[in-house]
Amino acid sequence: MSNHFTGLSLGPPLGDQRLDLCDLYAFQSPTDGSRTVLILNANVAADALHPDAIYRLAIDTDGDLINDIAFSFVFSVPVEGKQTVNVFLARGEQSRSPEPVGEQIFTDVPVAFGAQPNIVTAGDITFAAGARSDAFFFDYDGIKNLFDITGKRNFTAPHLAELGGKSPWTGQDSNTEANVCSMAIELPTNVLSTTGQIRIWGRCSLRESGSLNHVDRAGHPSVGSFFNTDDTKLEYNASEPPNDWERWLDQFVHLMGHTGDYNREEAVAAIEKEGLLPDMLTFDPAKPAAYPNGRVFTDDVIDYRLAFLTKGECPPSGLSPHTDTLSEFPYLGPPHGRG
């Protein structure tokens, strides 16, 4: 649920799991601190990704919220359980195009759906795509206890008072056997052409009847799930970070008034301090990665987000990170049930 579902209905974009962006990670390589790792996960079914979609990792390197670097991933039509992917690297003006433009740095790379990853390199850039174990951990039944006491799904009113001091958490991780389709890139940090923070976000766009429609986005964990409504999620997923503050601030402030009794001044200050808007993951490679500076697999982003929403009133879930992650590329462990 970090971004495994979108909006209150908890369904994937357009009802298609292939289009669902799950999680975005950014951290220093554990084997070489001069390299940065970027991982975009999609599709909780961990099967072939959509051949008419463009999956993108976009990076702002100078703080103006405009893309300066973009990696685009375009997948082939799957045939007999096999699929390939092309990867494009765009810089400057080209990185702002929604199309897969720029230098094609990987061509027809086989997507790995079994236990063994397919790791390829082009110069100093390392890449792999395929099914991997999902590192995201959360107590789904506990979240339902917190927000769904009356049987109505409502992320705007946590039922802490109704629980009478009892923890909503079950202590059970709902994601221990889950897989995702992962797109992992590792590159020298100096390629990012920055000495400070970068802002990273993911996008999934679908080509339909000649038009390219933006159907999902990923930045801060849990924002797409908790801050949206069914009425706004399509617009939110299609929107761009430079417009986030003007378009979405009032909705975020309104939500926080319900979840944490924030007044407007408190909510705006918390959003600014967090850097929650624009919805881009901030990462300073010169500092240790741990959300909200980048994101690593051990970050309990649900506890973090619920503490933020409730002004510290929601107790921690007590869950532990998954233990099947790797210390080497592609960092996520082998997929469950895939030989």
Automatic annotation (TrEMBL):
Chain positions covered by the region annotation Disordered: 317-339
Top-rank lineage group of the source organism: Bacteria
InterPro entries on file: DUF4331
Any Pfam family matching the protein: DUF4331
Name recorded for this polypeptide: DUF4331 domain-containing protein
Natural source organism: Mycobacterium rhizamassiliense
